[in-house]
Design a protein that fits this description.
Four Helix Bundle (Hemerythrin (Met), subunit A), mainly alpha, 5 helices, 0% strand
Amino acid sequence: METLQPVQERKANRVINILSLAIPLAVATLLGIRQKVNLGEWTTYLPHINGAINSITSVLLLTGFYFIRQKNVEAHKRTMLMAFALGTVFLVSYVLYHLTNESTPFGGQGLIRPVYYFLLVSHIVLSVVVVWFVLRAVYFALSGQIIKHKQAVKYAFPIWLYVSTTGVIVYLMIRPYYIH
């Protein structure tokens, strides 16, 4: 059984690496599609749902951090798995919105404009980067490799918290320009 461990580890790393590349490439490809799919007006409400998802994710990340500081591993695990599940729901909802609706241009003027674009660009770049760290952190935690989990979380947690928090800020800044 011990000889299988390195093979399983390599397979897991391969899957994590493939997903870490495939997810951002798939999102970028779908965002680049000019012909939008009409699934109905309900999809125009998805950015508002995404804002709520990012808000809840930020709270869950901070709650999970609190639980692990309190040495409540079980509550930490449940909380972080909920954050991971919400991240997955967000990704599907985000892609669905951009597959069905044109991107909303930011209408702010003056100093707020470069602030918005700085937050937006840093949010997008780090949302690509964080996928690899989060997948590794989750894998290491679920496979009982706690030392490796802690090493991955050293990067995953602050980046993920930044991405989810700036997602909310960017949403609030562009919200007045949505049709609905």
